[in-house]
Amino acid sequence: MLLDLDIRTTLRAGKQSFQLDVRLQTDSRRIVLLGPSGAGKSLTLKAIAGLLRPDAGHIRVDGHVLFDAAHGIDLAPQKRALAYVFQDYALFPHLTVRQNIAFPLVRGWFNPRRRHQDRQIDYWCEAFQLGQVADQYPHELSGGQKQRTALARALVTQPRALLLDEPFAALDPALRARMRSELKDLQQRLQVPMVLITHDPEDAAVFGDHVLDLRDGRIATGAGVRAA
Amino acid sequence: MNAWSALALSLKVAGCATLIDLVLGVAVGFLLARRRFPGRELLDTLLTLPMVMPPTVLGYYLLVLIGRHGPIGAWLQNTFGINLIFTWQGAVIAAAIVIFPLVFKPARAAFEGVDGQLEQAARVLGVSEMALFFRVTMPLAWRGILAGVLLGFARALGEFGATLMVAGSIPGRTQTLSIAVYEAVQAGQDDTANLMVLLTSFVCIAVLLTAGRLAPGRLAGRREA
Description:
A: alpha/beta, five-stranded antiparallel β-sheet, 6 helices, 12 strands, 27% helix, 27% strand, B: mainly alpha
């Protein structure tokens, strides 16, 4: 099983509480969690990445146990070998495009240098047409360039799976349509499993292979339809 | 009168106090910004007290604590044979406490201003907690921290009350510039006082100009442009 989730957790904010109870098993490599805001999509994605600790259940990706409450296993986010593309990309504002992409490749207490040379970085800059802007800072980039930089930084780590939080929400409609098909092509080329969360049914229709409806913290019954 | 040796002593005391507060202020500022624990705001309030309390009151507290019969003072005397009263090291401690709020408060604000999502992104990318502090958090917070540190240094140069209570006014040993000004005026040595006052003003203006250049607001303005 590629993705095997059983995430149960209760979150409290003041007097309100929210129950998350997401169970799913799939071998699909393009999984879409579709639901309105507040349905628990981001929480689910954060739990997979290790940024949120569920109360109970388990998380397995491609046979690797990342979390298992019953056995007391809870890998740190650093040890999960996943990649995460945040909704507003979370590019490091003090680093250039090249430094951002090289960031996960460099260990220790210092960031990669501005002139950091690495064949992998050159490869990804070329693949994502970032060569022209490689020495620019994130605030100088267009929306599409920011997203491609975030994707390159995520993929350079050769992750077990790529988690994408509303990756098209910040883009204008024309660019959104283009990036959807670019991302789908990319997934088919690299075969890296992707889990994408979105509130936009169009994203799910174009990109999704296995689409799950998430409502009020649960996978809606009768959902889990696989596209042909 | 040796205005220059008083200036040198002031710079030494203020420099040492600032270095101590740089380390402690960054640690406390980070703790207050990033950790939730009971009594967090109370700790912040207690550490802010030196900003509003009369320096003489602080000096008196210090005397009680590190004086020969105080709990810390007696322990230092018995264990290491160290006496801090009427020494320049005592003046450093007095100055470090007086300026601590000026250092840790901007540090806390600077750390709170760093987008936590960037740190989460670094975690998922496999970077350890220690490394992400130096590679993400500090590079984004250091301007705010440094502005506070420079303000603290300027304030330490002018420290008078607490220093006088703890270290006294021994010319050449514990008589800092601000205390020397007072002594000179008391003794009617107006020429010496004039020189020292101008000297102090010049150093403080230079430090404040530097601090102003580093203020986070200025940086943000430049980024927008």
